[in-house]
Amino acid sequence: MQVRKYHAENMKEALKLVRRDFGSQAVILSTKTAGGKIAGERTDGTKRGVEVVAALDYDFDSSAGRTKSLSQSAKSKVSSWKELLSERVSLENIQHELKELKKMMGQSHGPCEEGSKDLICMELKELKGMTQFLLRQAVPLEHHEFSEQLVHFYCQMIKQEICEEIALKLIKELKQDLSPDALRDRDQVRDNLISRIEKELPLAGPIDLTPGKVKIAALVGPTGVGKTTTVAKLAALYALNKKRKVALVTIDTYRIAAVEQLRVYSKIMGLPFANVSSPKEFGKTLAQFADRDLILVDTAGRSPRDQSQMEELKSFLRQSFPVEVHLAMSVTHKEDNLSATVNQFGLLPIDRIIFTKLDESYTYGSMVNQLVRIKKPLSFLTTGQKVPEDIEIATKKRIVSLILGERDVHYC
User: Fold this and answer.
1) Domain end among 11, 31, 57
2) What is the radius of gyration, based on Cα positions, of the chain?
């Protein structure tokens, strides 16, 4: 059980404070006229107001109620921390709030409602971002004079899981380059931040096709990122929408279901299809499809830890024909896993990046982190399972809108 004491001018205001921290599950233990120092003093010098002692019992039966209470508490702390930041308070206040939140989460147990868990995690990410922002400064916040707007956008970037180094670099640049008046204007800060984020994003645009010359594009990546479905979407985009001659090839000799899936897609779209099992056969198949504008190649999902599989894949891609290699990665994967994927698949001649499964994620900062890190251009984004609808050419405007939380994933 967590117990807190509240002072307020009247009972109505006291209950607001209780609900803010404990939600609807709060239990009022006692109320009395306050005798200590509180806001509001009579003209005769005497104090006025009430003192309320409230508690939250974490053993109540309703897991839904518990989840709602946690979410409400997290939200209230987000709000209160923003106010503290704008008032240039010391780290001691923030650290106290963080300890209270950790205690609350530690005492909580039992399953959360589906969907509520994600909401709580989102709120806690913002709290974490605010704390990290302060702790990295080493001295009180007022010595740095970061404006409320800079703090707001820093926290938004951290909430979207842009790494601290990149986020802090961006707001320091804004602080240095913008005038004091501009730093107080949210629109000006936002516009300048957008411009800086866009400069960090290398984009490739769509697959370029040259009339009379075949382009070979192979998708590589770990298992489960949606390579086969992405190949089908690209085939539909270029064959049906752009009216180009397309062929489909798979070198996935491990998953029969994936081969059959691509075979069905090729039949529906009326496209030639080949399944090859060796680098030599792969080279012959590419030569047979030399009259095509675009040959799309699906590869087996490879474990980044398996060097033998990586060497096998490299042997397939080592052809007399130039092969444009697209590394497909899912935004649902953790940052460490994405970095490991980039390190291992970096042994291949990666030309472009495709990010998949945007519809399954709540955060998109990992795209920025990886693009800044590996400096390879981004070509496409996928946003669902529908073929060919759920694929789009990556644009800077689109990525920034996701990072700043201004658009839904499905917007085009």
Assistant:
1) 57
2) 27
